[in-house]
Design goal:
mainly alpha
Length: about 120
Amino acid sequence: MNLHISEFDRHNIIRAAILKVANFHKIADCEYKSSKELYDEIAQKNSPLFESLNNYLDSFTKWFRFYHKKQNMEQKTGKIYNFNEAELKELETLLTDKNKNLDNLQIQHTLQKIN
């Protein structure tokens, strides 16, 4: 299977995560504000969600950059690039971190709703 995720996709995924947290904090006019503006307002709330959001965005970006190298290589050569063993291990670690941090963000969101 060949996965393709663009820079546009990356921005949309990041925006969705930021919007979810901004909506939780009831930040006004979310749909009219940039992701940067929302992120800054979320930071001012000083909630556990902010740390979880940061961890997720960081791990997602690391995974995206790693995988994007593969996509760039394929575009340059016109051939499918197969990861070597070390790259597969790194990819597995990045995926695990990304998924763990997404789970933590969702758990924090749920816990904050309960409290």
